[in-house]
Amino acid sequence: MAAHDHLSLCLCDVIRLLWSLVLPCVYLCVVLSAILAFLMLGVRMWLQRSRSARLAREKALSVAFFHPYCNAGGGGERVLWCAIRALQNRYQDVSIVVYTGDLGVTGEQILEGARQRFNIRMPRPVKFVFLKHRFLVEASLYPHFTLLGQSVGSVFLGWEALTEFVPDVYVDSMGYAFTLPLFRHLGGCRVVSYVHYPTVSTDMLSVVRERDARFNNADYIAGNPLLSAIKMVYYCAFALLYGLAGSCSHMVMVNSSWTLGHILALWRVPNRTAIVYPPCDVHTFLNSPLEEQEEEQGSGRKCHSLVSVAQFRPEKDHRLQIRAFRALLDRRPAGLGRESLRLVLIGGCRNQEDEDRVLMLRGLCQELNVADRVEFKLNVQFEELKKELTGATVGLHTMWNEHFGIGVVECMAAGAVVLAHRSGGPLLDIVVPYEGSPTGFLADDVATYTDAMERILAMTPATRLEIRRNARRSVARFSDQEFEASFLSAIESVMGMVAQ
Predict the structure, then answer these.
(1) Which end of the chain is more exposed for a tag (fewer CB within 10 A), N or C?
(2) Which residues make Cβ contacts (< 8 Å) with residue 285, sequence separation at least 6?
(3) 3-class SS of residue 65
(4) Greater confidence, 161 or 32?
(5) How far apart are CA 280 and CA 411, in angstroms?
(6) In sequence order, what are the beta bridge partners of 100?
(7) What's the 3-state SS for 108-149?
(8) pLDDT digits (tens, 9 = 90+) for 389-399
């Protein structure tokens, strides 16, 4: 037998072997896919029956908000309670449900906390579904591949929520986009998203690509080309999945121009996406007179407060505030106003990790010898927050690519001269000229923050007063009333679908 004939017979034998292996695999995949499809159909029918039984029993449509940390005191929680209040005022016969993981408190205590922290009262009772597995979305549970881990965890947490209560309209108000397909395709719900911050963004990709060390890109990864390449592939794959999940939304609301750009690039549903600026309690702060404060400063008030309002999370970059404050003190010789400065850090702590971060910040203050000039105020009530802001000279903000910046708006409404990060929402939407005049200042590192603080403090009271007045006039577009009108306008089409 010729050599080429022998080779041909060997190739035929290999092909037969491969075919004998591939064909059963194909059959197995088809069978498993059919079983999975039937299983999903059965689960959907079971959940639909549960919803139908609830509708027959209660005779009212329900809107459920997925907000596992609803008892926290951040801007996202303010959006939640204002959205619920708006729905209750517009739709008298709609039941509101909140999925929460706050197991240590009652529903009444959660609502009382919203009243104390945000000055928000609910027109009618709110139902709470308490989830037992919130730890599945804790970042600390996933030291590596955190985004993927939290996203998979959110699916399991969403499944717990869905099996506990099947709503007619599901609103993800915390950014857990991977729960959207679950509620839409298994629960048969109309789904709505309010996006505060994209889970992954092109800015995050550029940080990894440029090997820039940040809070979400560790030094050992930024310094290693191979690890950076692997993380780049991981981020790109995750961005694709994130876009597919987000595109399941019947309606998407984003909180700023910056977020809009990223969500349009990732989710690709422009006809279902709208900007709805978050609600800021500007009217409460507008009651404080500006003129009297400035006259008091002009007559020799000795203390200038630099106040920051932000949850104690790593991305808020409180370290930058403390270092810039130290640099500011170094520029002011003893006896020439150093004793008149104080830095006040106001914010909420969600968990032990945040509390540990506060301890680290206190340690940094000790290290830089500014502990006697820096005050930490944790989980303060609204009246204390208002008192600090209305008495502040400078309102500080240091988060890179802040999605919006409710704290920035509150500082402007309260009468502080805002100094925010030159990126994200503050750059594009908030600290922008109003009627041709400045509304605040922007910076991006220790040197530029120190320069801006020094410039603000060196201004005459009259100059500061003009900036503060202009800033106040500009923030009316971020009021509770504007948010409620925009939110109801955006969700109206979804509510109409359910009512049919």
Answers:
(1) C
(2) 386, 389, 390, 410, 413, 414, 415
(3) strand
(4) 161
(5) 10
(6) 130
(7) HHHHHHHHHHHCCCCCCCCEEEECCCHHHHCHHHCCCCHHHH
(8) 988 999 999 99
The rounded distance, in Å, linking the Cα atoms of 383 and 398 is 24
Average pLDDT over residues 323-332: 92
Structure token pair of residue 223: 């310094």
Q: Whose structure tokens read 């009108």?
A: 485
DSSP assignment of 381-431: -HHHHHHHHHT-SEEE---TT-SS-HHHHHHHHHTPEEEEESSHHIIIIIS
Share of the chain above pLDDT 90, in %: 56
Q: Cβ distance 434 to 447 under 8 Å?
A: no
* 431/417 Cα distance (integer angstroms): 10
Query: Nearest-CA neighbor of 9 among 449, 17, 72?
Result: 17
Task: Say yes or no to pLDDT of 296 above 50.
Answer: no
Yes or no: say if 126 and 97 are a contact pair by the CB < 8 Å rule: yes
Spatial separation of the C-alpha atoms in residues 267 and 262, rounded to whole Å: 8
User: Environment class of residue 352 by beta-carbon count within 10 Å: exposed (0-12), middle (13-18) or buried (19+)?
Assistant: exposed
Residue 297 in this model has a pLDDT that exceeds 60:
no
Of 283, 277, 325, the C-alpha closest to 410 is 283
Q: Would the pLDDT of 476 be above 50?
A: yes
Tell me which H or E stretch contains 50: helix 3-58
The CA angle 63-68-72, to the nearest 5 degrees, is 110
| Among candidate residues 388, 398, 376, the one with its CA nearest the CA of residue 303 | 388
The pLDDT tens digits for 216-269 are: 556 666 667 787 788 888 888 999 999 999 999 999 999 999 999 999 999 999
Residue 184 token pair: 């839409």
User: d(Cα 345, Cα 358) in Å, to the nearest integer?
Assistant: 10
- The neighbour count for residue 271, using CB atoms within 10 Å, is 6
